[in-house]
């Protein structure tokens, strides 16, 4: 009996001695490097993972006969840069071999973008309760032909420290999967894929309700803000987890920072309404600098979406408009960035709707900018008109705009303009198109005999109706610097 026990004990000991070798010997990859992923075309993409310290790993890619050899560091981490070919329909495989092979299949090569922000970017094609997506059926049917669009969602994980990995899975677009894809991301990718004829990958890293501070890292929050950085203080400061600082950077964004991408789509701001002064524009600029530094890919394009008009408790108030103005200010300070104007993409019945239904147009407007600026299609008209200059003579304002492309959509029945005199009280104004150093408008208001300041669509919910030759709306603007109410 004792011999039997000794025999069993020896076998258990031998098993335990072998167990660590079985667990740690094989290459471990982050979840984002997995079957169905899309890699950025014609560049050097980063592949990375973990293994035993000092372990040599051979990385073989099916588009090339030349393998890559990499050795893990003392911390067990490794990273290799792999050259990618031109994108196309061909699925590839990547083999990681440390003596035992790990294979990633159905790898596509094309264009890769991050979708970030809060609930309007997170909003899937199936929408939210009482918030449908316009054109849902048409989009689902069209997705039959969009299998070369793949997306991967980062789960909503809060963390006090940057995570290196998070559970996620790449999915190919089909009528069964498209409904869970970001609607804006999908419509962007669809137009891009059809135009460039290459696969498109979307890395979805967002959190509904998040503030811009939720995406800043500890270093920037400590250096430039007074946000709490102790876990207990963070929870005490924000009962709503979505609004907490830093934790979304650590849990959602940090795991994707090694992935090679070609740009960022961003739609966020509602949760920062009420921020004082230029705080939001300064922190958004800081965030873009942070991301570009962390990705290490240079000044990759930043496509920011301006908030749509929203009543915010008072149609004629300006608290919501102040945040939209901050987004515009940031767009002028952030290099290689674009602000997508949505002033025309809210129906009158959606004045109290934070999630307007017209998402296709947003994704396509982002794609117009990408096609023009990143892919050289200069005949694509992508810019919204902007304020250029104003001249006042007696009771009349003369206005000029930039980015008209030689035409504006209305000669009369223009709405959205307001004039104010020295009393700083704004009144609705009449605008008529004139020929003044190309295209211009003359603005008058019977109640304002000596105008001092002009505003356009500068209320929470006071959309204008001016568009340029490309059908893109005029950005809201003001010529005064008076305090907002």
Describe the overall structure:
- There is one protein chain.
- With about 475 residues, this protein is α/β, with parallel strands linked by helices.
- The chain folds into three domains: about 40-105, Immunoglobulin-like (Sandwich); about 110-375, Rossmann fold (3-Layer(aba) Sandwich), CATH 3.40.50; about 385-480.
- The protein has ten helices and 21 strands.
- The protein has helices at about 1-25, 120, 135-140, 185-195, 220-225, 230-235, 245-255, 280-295, 320-335, 360-375, and strands at about 40, 45-50, 55-60, 70, 75-85, 90-95, 100-115, 150-155, 170, 200-205, 265, 300-305, 335-340, 385-395, 395-400, 415-420, 425-430, 430-435, 440-445, 455, 475-480.
- The strands form four sheets. Strands 1, 3, 4, 6, 7, 8, 9, 10, 11, 12 and 13 form an eleven-stranded mixed beta sheet that branches.
- α8 packs across α9.
- It is globular, with a radius of gyration of 27 Å.
- Mean pLDDT is about 95; it is low at about 10-25.
